[in-house]
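Exercise 7.
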Amino acid sequence: MIRTIIVDDEPLAIEILETHCASISDLEVVSTFSNAVDASTFLSQNTIDLMLLDIQMPQLTGLDFLRNLNNPPQVIFTTAYSEYAVDGFELNAIDYLLKPISFDRFLKAINKYRSQLGTTASAVAGDEEDHIFVKADKKLIKINYNEVLYIEGLKDYVIIRMGDKRVITLQTMKSLDLKLPDSIFMRIHRSYIINVSKIEALVGNMVEITEKGEKKHIPVGKNYRESLLELINDRKI
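Solution. The predicted structure, written as tokens, is:
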């Protein structure tokens, strides 16, 4: 596991980073801190692999904090201010992420960390895990992959449908698609992601599944049909 801490004085920023981290299979958030002083005390007593570090914080900036650490962990800066990028890289930071931080940009930064260690790059939850956490109703909800029938996009929201249960989360289809394992899920339409194991039939430009005891047909976009046919042929769904 990649033992990680988050240091940021903005609660929302910490929440977003925790959500991103929860979607990466071997990234463990050991603790979070709202200021560098508390983080410094923690680091003096614990070994950490990676620190997600904000720059503009009260008492001590992230840059000064890092300069004064004797044995700092690897660092990815997370900030709303681009003017500190040069200073960040002079301190040998792995990457410099500008807020708001998207998941795909965050994953690229984690892959940079991995490449420095000489390890492989794939990190999305699902390579080793069988679930994902999504934010809904002011909490992080565990979604087991095998319970998901399909996912429906609605503007800036997605609806994760699991038979009699559904979860609505504020994110785009693209961002969620990046987090899901290709071995289980497939985008078949700009508004739909399907759990491929739930497909019972392909009827014209529709896939057929059973939802709440009834047959349901979900459209397949013309740009996705060829990939779906290849998958069905390879896996004999």
